[in-house]
Amino acid sequence: MDLLNTLVDKGLRRELPTREEALAVLATSDDELLDVVAAAGKVRRQWFGRRVKLNYLVNLKSGLCPEDCSYCSQRLGSKAEILKYTWLKPEEASKAAAAGVAGGAKRVCLVASGRGPTDRDVDRVSKTIEAIKEENEGVEVCACLGLLSDGQAERLRTAGADAYNHNLNTSEGTYGDITTTHTYADRVDTVQKAHAAGLSACSGLIAGMGESDEDLVDVVFALRELDPDSVPVNFLIPFEGTPLAKEWNLTPQRALRILAMVRFVCPDVEVRLAGGREVHLRTLQPLALHLANSIFLGDYLTSEGQAGKADLEMIADAGFEVEGTDTTTLPEHRADAASCGTGGGCGSGSVCSSDEEPEVSAARPDLVAVRRRGAGTDLAPNA
Fold first, then answer.
1. Are 59 and 301 in contact, with CB atoms under 8 Å apart?
2. How many CA atoms lie within 13 A of 169 on its CB side?
3. How many CA atoms lie within 13 A of 91 on its CB side?
4. Hey, which residues are catalytic here?
5. Other Cβ atoms closer than 10 A to 228
6. Cα(46)–Cα(242) distance, integer angstroms
7. CA distance 182 to 68
8. Are the C-beta atoms of residues 294 and 271 closer than 8 Å to each other?
9. Is 159 left (phi over 0), alpha (psi -120 to 50) or beta?
10. Which of 73, 164, 183, 291 has the fewest CB atoms within 10 Å around its CB?
11. Whole-angstrom Cα distance, residue 33 to residue 375?
């Protein structure tokens, strides 16, 4: 298939595909799916071998958010019956993080609901970062606290944070349909603040919110321009009690095509298989490891994930290996802070599209399990 040969060649050179090529990946048929996965897998192996980085989420503060992000179970007005609690103490967060590290996690992601941290919140998280680093040698810590004010990224960096996550989530053109309490530009600004402070930027998307192929390509190209080191690809978890509870738009095949498109556009970036993989990829999760080189271990912020032991077995059975703390995740040119190539640009030509009706999978609310264990509870975490 000429398209895939071209995309592999570009990926091995870190050259940007055209928009038309990215759209064409999303428009491939199910009969071509294994060819798409194999092609994107060549690019993944070129830059990351067969390593899989494990990340572990610690929800420092659950629910109670004043923002109205339609996809989020913690949003203002959410009726989802999730755990709600205020800030964990540093020692509580460190204990939760230790469970993930013991399960093989190389990075701990500290997340707190809310518009953004106050200076007091930054102090609190700084103490948590210090506690985790003191107890777990070599572990990376990523903070995800919402929109940052001037100087806050620098303070987190001083405290020992390695990275900062703030996702774009969807395209600029559709952002206002998803969230009204802050803007797409606000999110871009926070990613840029993290970059400027010397933190490794982590920014990704959520697929399955009713967006078009063009929207998906728009947000991934915008991410490529922002040049984060990590791009988490989330698949919407349609929580009952949220505005997007009825959005069951993904099939396992569609999810794999999205991951492949992200890999082709961001060939040498840590592509992370994130929230919703169990819900939408289901038994095809092992195929996704040929596209993504990073996953979350165990549970998510407000929903249960696959058992940590099952994650490790899946990685081994698929012929991959867990990345150790003594290994640098990123290719040398990125680890040395060299810029990711942006050659190629957008070309002209017709946009490839499928003549078939959009794929819609049957709703599976039985696969959405609210988290009832781990951080904020007396029960052992899933790691």
1. yes
2. 22
3. 0
4. 65, 69, 72, 109, 142, 202, 272
5. 26
6. 40
7. 9
8. yes
9. alpha
10. 183
11. 38
- pLDDT tens digit sequence for 295-335: 999 999 999 999 999 999 999 999 999 999 889 999 999 98
DSSP secondary structure of 209-278: SS--HHHHHHHHHHHHHH--SEEEEEE----TTSTTTT-----HHHHHHHHHHHHHHSTTSEEEE-TTHH
Q: What is the Cα–Cα distance from 273 to 39, expressed in whole angstroms?
A: 18
54 has which bridge partners? 295
- Cβ pair 216, 261 in contact under 8 A: yes
18 and 342 Cβ atoms separated by less than 8 Å: no
Provide the H-helix boundaries in the chain.
2-12, 19-26, 33-48, 90-102, 119-135, 152-159, 175-178, 184-196, 213-226, 252-265, 277-280, 285-288, 308-317, 332-335
Pair 52, 293: CB distance under 8 Å: yes
DSSP state of 365: G
| Whole-number Å distance between alpha carbons of 16 and 224 | 9
pLDDT tens column, 175-226: 999 999 999 999 999 999 999 999 999 999 999 999 999 999 999 999 999 9
pTM: 0.89
Q: What is the DSSP letter of 358?
A: P
Residue 109's identity, in one-letter code, is C
Residue 340: strand, helix, or coil: coil
Sequence-distant (≥ 6) Cβ neighbours of residue 197 within 8 angstroms? 153, 154, 156, 157, 164
User: Are 245 and 205 in contact, with CB atoms under 8 Å apart?
Assistant: no
